[in-house]
Description:
transmembrane; elongated; 10 helices; ABC-2 type transport system permease protein; antibiotic resistance
Amino acid sequence: xxxxxxxxxxxxxxxxxxxxxxxxxxxxxxxxxxxxxxxxxxxxxxxxxxxxxxxxxxxxxxxxxxxxxxxxxxxxxxxxxxxxxxxxxxxxxxxxxxxxxxxxxxxxxxxxxxxxxxxxxxxxxxxxxxxxxxxxxxxxxxxxxxxxxxxxxxxxxxxxxxxxxxxxxxxxxxxxxxxxxxxxxxxxxxxxxxxxxxxxxxxxxxxxxxxxxxxxxxxxxxxxxxxxxxxxxxxxxxxxxxxxxxxxxxxxxxxxxxxxxxxxxxxxxxxxxxxxxxxxxxxxxxxxxxxx
Length: 292
């Protein structure tokens, strides 16, 4: 009598009982189990934790301390907007991008290179379950990162957080849509590096340039109009704008393009990139590189 098939302990899946139910239920269950494995594996990688999970926290701290005496803008009541207050939305948006796009693009490229995906190709793990695990990892780590950023800003740098439930509702859908879109794009981008060793050199410059042109490290309104238009093509600009609409006073909307937070535009831009990412992933993702 043969033993039950497994998705191999080396890749984190548990034994698959023969009576698991419908294929859809099996796929979802394996995907949810995979999330736990992916999160544990993520936090075991010190360099990944620093450059994706803690990096926005470190940058918020540096900006807040370095410009502690500066006032970036003023509220309608005449209160100064501190560096920590001003940069908090940008760091939240950057964290979404790093947790999704940068992390998954590098991670999956490395798994292709070291043979992990080849082993998974011969296991019972459906590709959709694998994607659920990766996207779930991005959501879980992104939420933890956002909580740390918000706690740091509120407790250490006295940044006032929104009191209106509607703003937190906006934050929830913008964050969730942003991190899922970033994760899907990260899966698609993982097809670009030729090897796991080159993945960092390929992916990090892309995310770094996007951060500079999308109003993360520089005030977006200070960028040339043509560069603002270029940034508007990419999702990070919209995620940063959405976070500013939640955490900055309404009067600062004059610093945005067209002097509007444009929530429908944010939703549309991210939805378009989500669909584009799904199409690219469908066309490019392989368990094994074609040139292997």
